[in-house]
Every structure is written in structure tokens, then in C-alpha cells.
Amino acid sequence: MTDINSPEEKARYERGLAVLTEVDGGSAPAVMENLADIAPALAHHIVAFGFGDIYARPGLDPKQRQLITLGILASLGGCEPQLEVHVKTSLNVGLTPSEIVETFIHTAGYAGFPRALNAVGVAKKVFADRGLLPVSSDR
Amino acid sequence: MTDINSPEEKARYERGLAVLTEVDGGSAPAVMENLADIAPALAHHIVAFGFGDIYARPGLDPKQRQLITLGILASLGGCEPQLEVHVKTSLNVGLTPSEIVETFIHTAGYAGFPRALNAVGVAKKVFADRGLLPVSSDR
Amino acid sequence: MTDINSPEEKARYERGLAVLTEVDGGSAPAVMENLADIAPALAHHIVAFGFGDIYARPGLDPKQRQLITLGILASLGGCEPQLEVHVKTSLNVGLTPSEIVETFIHTAGYAGFPRALNAVGVAKKVFADRGLLPVSSDR
Amino acid sequence: MTDINSPEEKARYERGLAVLTEVDGGSAPAVMENLADIAPALAHHIVAFGFGDIYARPGLDPKQRQLITLGILASLGGCEPQLEVHVKTSLNVGLTPSEIVETFIHTAGYAGFPRALNAVGVAKKVFADRGLLPVSSDR
Amino acid sequence: MTDINSPEEKARYERGLAVLTEVDGGSAPAVMENLADIAPALAHHIVAFGFGDIYARPGLDPKQRQLITLGILASLGGCEPQLEVHVKTSLNVGLTPSEIVETFIHTAGYAGFPRALNAVGVAKKVFADRGLLPVSSDR
Amino acid sequence: MTDINSPEEKARYERGLAVLTEVDGGSAPAVMENLADIAPALAHHIVAFGFGDIYARPGLDPKQRQLITLGILASLGGCEPQLEVHVKTSLNVGLTPSEIVETFIHTAGYAGFPRALNAVGVAKKVFADRGLLPVSSDR
User: Fold this and answer.
1) Any alpha helices (H) in chain B, and if so which ranges?
2) CA distance A63 to chain D (A)
3) Is residue D52 in a domain?
């Protein structure tokens, strides 16, 4: 089994953590810490694999990855906690509130209005907390 | 881009709003107002397209459309806020509490018991608020 | 364990089979027979529970149950074989091709265009086989 | 229609209730009672069919059935209330906290990290209530 | 009801068709024509609403919209026919094969490996037809 | 970015491949080879992460992991190609045809009959190819 405390795995983790820290603006660590007493290996793999192996790949930049992630999470449904983290991350990598909302409006055609509405509801909560309302959406 | 403030779009919106107002019994406006400072275009299109273009079509009557909508929302999962609106709309167009519950029981066979249970839970909250419990369900 | 060959279960099965035979117009037996050498108990329970216990309940009539079922199957996605059976069943209980198509158009707003398109594609195949094209859809 | 108060159905129900009582450790009755004034037939069929007909089948033992159920509920998403019941049931039939968490980590590869995180979140709440944290997970 | 043959609707349709024609590189018309004898209104609304109202909005450019669409369709599952159209559209608006594949690899973490594998399978078929294999993916 | 050709990654891959080879009975390599000209990194990560990091964890044995995987894939829907691979893998690690079918019957209650039917259909094809029909299912 993969020993997540081995030097190699610690290096993988550090690589992932550097990516995560750069993109998430401080939202993700709470998620990871929350796993410490129940599934530390899951936290390790989210960081080492999800961010170190995948997110760090050069084929897409962070803004593009966030747009895709927002579309996926909105469409899957039931991912409100993850959407909240990723709306914050999206702001942090430079997406505007308008682009975030636009992504959810775009989602409506492919996954239906309910998924879009729930995602916008999550964004609204984040934007309200940060004084980003009203969003100067393009009509 | 579609200018949602053009006379043509305002006419489409008004057409949709007339349908929505007739079927929803006052539950939906809050959803629409909630979008005003973040995604007014989404509210516009839900009304103009969702109700004006689709719901208004004569092929199915409002009771039939609500039965279908309840089945869809229950099956998708994670649409509890929309289910709440549509349970209220369903009552408003004349579906009985028993028919609403029956729809969710029917859903169990196609989408499993958990989806059915969550939908019944939403209905129970609405029915309790309106003094509609117990439901005289057919066995 | 439930002995599906006991007199009580055979009676339940017969009750379900009577409902199924009445509504499906001969499409379902092939599905059931297909299970005979791999999961006869699943076939038994679909008939005894799905049709005998649930479908037979008086709260909704067969047309209503089919509308709901079409909406659910379209929305779940990946249920094309079941959609095909239920499009046939829907015709058999008296839904018109136009009502079937309308159900899938209605689905678009709640589950997105791709689900609606795939469901219409299934209906088209069934309608073509039966000489029911073109559908005189409203507008 | 199936008369859920007939002697045959009461016998089916009792058979299912015996299975349910044995496996669930007292978590499920609240779910069933909650249905009493809105959908008693749904409660009947969950017990009679879900537990009496299916769960009682000898092909898989309760631990195996719970592992499968946990994987399904985590993957479907939006089934947090049912996951909570089934995490408790899983503990009751003898799965360890570590096996439960491991199931959700396994789920990540097939249904993605968000589904796994939400499921672990549910387990954490149950484990915290029962003093089962930290989980001595295998690295 | 919305008269899709009215001058206003024809104008909306034309606006949508202009967007669709610009982005899709000729893949979509077949989908639309396929609806002509069964659900012409669905075709109308996909073009008028999906492309004229939504896709045409300036908040996101076509490359961004395609990345989001690919992520959504891959994650929903069972949308292989729509994925095929959108892989072609994505190439047409200037996404590279490598970016398309990268989007599906990114999807793996959020929706699991099976969804990613099915989407890559669709892309492979399109790329093979167009002589775009092997993809010079970034390691 | 993770260099999948580095010694550390090759070691991770080899660890995963050893697990995969042990459990899959020769079904998976074709999937991996199929990715060689389009997404070799995806193949790498499925092996290194999916099998080396996750599947190899000692908390659950291969039979348990396969039961969970079958339940997940059946429930997600649209994963027939992956189900086929995993039905073969399940046989290879020692699950009986009866246990595989039982898993899908169990799935019916949680994800509905259509998902169960599609999964049984995949199993039937595999079992037919291997002369494992009829399955001596319990009842």
C-alpha cells in the first residue's frame, strides 16, 4: 500500500499543496483539516492526486479549470459544499462574479434550471459575504 | 445578444409571467426576486422560456405537467428547494395531496426508495404548514 | 427469504402480471423472459411489487403513471432500453405521440436539452416502426 | 390493489420488519413512523419489499449488503439522510468505522471526490455522536 | 402559446442559428433536422433559447463555453451523442485536442474515472475520423 | 507537473499495475492501451492512483471492493463499458455469478429497477460468453 508518510508521498503532497494554496485562496485547508480524524488518506490523495497530479497539469490554466469545475459541480447536484469552496477558489484565480454566474446560466441548458438555481444560490451566499452584490451581469 | 429589456422580450416575459402566476399560486415570485441582484437574466429566461414557451404549450395540461415535474425533480435528487415550490404549485393547479404522494411512491420503483423518501419529506413539510396532514392515502 | 414459488407469491405475481399485461401492450414480457436464466427473482419482483403493489394503486391512472415514468426515465439518463418499453406502454394506455413528445420537451427545462434529445430519439425509433411519423406536434 | 392490511401483507411486513430490526439497530423505525401520516404504504413496501423480499435474500450477508448500500448512496448524491441511517446500520451489523470510511474513499475513484467528501461528512457526524473518532484508518 | 412561426420567433431563431452556425462547424444541423418530423418546437427552442438567448451572451467566449459544456456532458453521463457534437464544436471554436482531453482528465476527480473514460472514448472516435491521433498530450 | 516518466511515478505505476493485474484477470489492459494515443496520463493515474493508492489499501479485500464497485457503477448509470470490465474482475477475484446478480438486485431498491436491469444485462452478456448461464440464483 501507498505509505502516505513516505518521503516520496510527502513530496507529492507538497507539490499538490503548493498548487492548492495558490489557487484556493484559503478555502480548502478547512476541508482537509476536517478529514484529519476520520480520513486523512482521503485528504492526502485529494491534495497529491487531485491538485499535484491533475490540477497542476499545464494543458488548462486555473481559470479554465475553475469554469469546468463549476459546470461539473452544478450539474452533478448535491455538491453545494464543494460549490461553495470552488466559487471562492474561482474568485481567487481571477474569475469575475459575472463569469461565475454566467457559467451557471450556461449550465441551465445542459442540466436544467434546478441545478442552475441551486448553484446560483451558493454563489449568492458567497458574494453576499464578500460584498460582491449586485453582480453587474450582462443582460 | 438577446436584450431582455427590449419590447419583444418584455412581451415574452409577460406571456410567461401570466402562465406562471396562474399555475404557481404565489410560490415562484420569491425565487425570481431572489435572482434580481445576481442573475436577472436567469429569472427572465425561466419565466419567458420555461413558462412562456414551454409550460404554455397546449399538449399537456397543468396537472399533467406538475405530475411530470414532481417525478423529474424527485428522481434527479438534490432539488429539494424546487420540489417545495412545485409541491405548492401542484396543490394550486388542483392535484390532491394524495396524488402528489402517489407520484413519489411511483418514483420509488424507477429511481429508488431514497429519492422517494426525500421527496415525501418535502411534501410533508408543505402539507404540515397547510394543515393537510394526515393524507388520506389509498392504502 | 421470500419464496417466489409459494402460493402467496404466485398470487402476488399474478396480480402484478394482470396489471402489466393490461398496460404494456406486449412489450414487457420480453424483458421478463430475458431475466429467466439470470435473475428470475428480479423479474418476479418487478411484476409483483412494481406492477402488483405500486402500479395497481388507484391514486393515479395509467396515463398519469406513464407521463411520470417518461419524465423520470428521460431525466435519469442512460435508461434508453426502459424508455423504449415505456414509450410503447404509453401508446398502449392511450397517450398520443404528441403527448409523449410534449413530456420530453417539458423535461428539457428541468433536466436539460441532452436528456430531452435522447428521449425524443428513442420515441422517434418507436414511432417510425409504427408509422406514427410525422407527429402532429402543436407548433 | 394490494391491501396492506390483509393477513398475507401483514405477514410479509412482519418478515421484513424482523430483518430490518435485526440489521438496523433502531435507526430505521423513526423513518417509518415519519411516513405514518403521509405515505404509510411507502413505509409498508420499504419494509415488506426492501427488507422482506430483497435484503433477506441469502446471496449476500448484511455486511456485504451494507458495503454496497454505502457505495450506492454515496454515489447517487443527495442521499445524506439515508446515508446517516445506513452508516448506523453498518456499524450495527459489524462493519468497523474504518471499513465504512474505506468504502467512501473507494467511491472517490468511481464517482469523484465531492461524493466521497459528502459521505465522509455524514459518517463523521455519526461517529462523533458515538465517540468513535478518531478513526484508526489504515494509511 | 409561443408561435414559433411568428416574425418575432423567426427573428429569435435566426439570431440563435447565426450563433450556432458560427460555433458548431456543421455538426448541429443534423441534430436539428432529425427533430423536424417529431419535435420541431424542441429544435426551435434549442436554437432560439439555447444559442440565441444563452450561448450568445457576452460573459463567456465560445472556447470557455465549450470547456464548460464538455465538463457538464461528461459528468452527466449517458450524453455520448451530445458529447460527440460538442467535441466537434470544440475543435471548431479553436480548442485543441489536447485541451479537450485535458478537460475530461480534469473531470475524473470530480465525477470519477468512468465518466472520464467514456468521454475520452467519444473524443477518440472524433479525433480518429479527423486524423488527429495521437494527441500530443502533456504528460 | 507530475512527470509520469520519472522513476518515482514509474514505481507508483508498477505498484498499481501489480494490483490491477492480480484483480482484473486480464480485462483492464485493453482499456489502458486504448488510452495510449489519446490520454496516456489518464491511464497512468487510473493505475497509479486508482489501483496503487486506493485499491491496494488493506481496509477492504478485493471481493468487498468489487461488490461496492458493482453497486456504484450500476447506480450511476451509463457505465456499461466499465460494468463489463468489473463484472469480469469480480469473477476473477472470486465472486460468484450469483453474488454479482444479487448485488444488482440489491441495487434496485436504492437506485430503481432500470439501473438494476441494465446492470443485469451487462452481466448476462459476460456470463453468456463464459458459459455461466443459467445462474443458479437463490429463488
Assistant:
1) 7-24, 28-34, 40-45, 62-76, 80-92, 97-111, 113-129
2) 20
3) yes
Helix, strand or coil for residue D47? helix
CA distance F88 to F82: 10
DSSP conformational letter for A133: P
CB contact C77 to A (< 8 Å)? no
pLDDT exceeds 70 at position D28:
no
Cα–Cα distance measured from residue A109 to residue A128, given in angstroms and rounded to the nearest whole number = 26
Looking at chain E, which residue has its C-alpha nearest residue D111?
A: E112
Collect all residues of chain F within an 8 Å Cβ-Cβ radius of residue C82.
113-114, 117-118
Q: How far apart are CA E19 and CA E47, in angstroms?
A: 9
Whole-angstrom CA distances from A104 to A74, A98, A110, F74 are: 7, 10, 10, 29
Cβ of B113 within 8 Å of Cβ of F110? The answer is yes
C10 near B CB under 8 A:
no
Domain shared by A48 and A101, yes or no: no
CA distance D18 to B125: 30
Is the CB of E54 inside 8 Å of chain A's CB atoms? Answer: yes
Q: Do C41 and D58 touch (CB under 8 A)?
A: no
- For chain D, give the mean pLDDT: 93
Helix, strand, coil percentages (3-state) for chain F, rounded to 5, are: 75, 0, 25
- Domain annotation covers residue B90: yes
Across F6-39, b (16+ Cβ under 10 Å) vs e yields eeebeebbebbbebbeebbeebbeebbeebeebb
pLDDT tens per residue across span B15-71: 999 999 999 877 667 778 899 999 999 999 999 999 999 999 999 999 999 999 999
DSSP code of residue A54: I
Q: How distant is the Cα of A92 from the closest Cα of chain B, in angstroms?
A: 19
Q: CA-to-CA distance for E62 and A45, rounded, in angstroms?
A: 33
Q: What CA–CA distance (Å, rounded) separates D83 from D90?
A: 10
C135 vs D103: CA distance, rounded Å: 49
Q: A57, A77, A100: which is the final residue of a domain? A: A57
Quick one: cell of D35?
Answer: 411516513
Do D9 and D3 contact (CB within 8 A), yes or no? yes
In chain B, the number of structural domains is 2
Minimum CA–CA partner of B117 in chain F: F110
Q: Are residues D48 and D83 in the same domain?
A: no
In this structure, are E46 and E68 located in the same domain?
A: no
Residues of E in contact with A76 (CB under 8 A): 75, 110-111
How does residue F27 score in pLDDT terms, banded at 50, 70 and 90? low
**Whole-number Å distance between alpha carbons of F3 and F41:** 9
d(CA D100, CA D83): 11
Nearest CA to CA, how far is B101 from chain D (Å)?
A: 7
Residue C50's domain comprises: 1-57
Q: Is residue E114 part of a domain?
A: yes
Residues C73 and C50 in one domain: no
Name the pLDDT band for E27 (thresholds 50, 70, 90): low
The chain-wide mean pLDDT, for chain B, equals 93
Question: What is the Cα–Cα distance from D26 to C1, expressed in whole angstroms?
Answer: 21
